[in-house]
């Protein structure tokens, strides 16, 4: 026996019936709405999501999508150096410092 879902063409053919791995306890704790209900009550569903609830959208009784609240990112403090930087930090390097910077790295461990 073969199963086709809706008007999907053969590339979406499945040899077995659809099965979703959804924790039944999760479905009890969140509202599940079919597509038509979700379309007519979209503003209400967004209000539920805004207040922290999760909403599942189902197609023909089968869970397809989950609406969840977007958590805004926290503000990060710029900078990574603790303390104060010297006033000349952004100035070009002097000749002596530049020579040391460009010098080859010499390992402190002896090579065999």
TrEMBL record:
Pfam families: PhdYeFM_antitox. Signal peptide: none annotated. Antitoxin component of a type II toxin-antitoxin (TA) system. Belongs to the phD/YefM antitoxin family. This is Antitoxin.
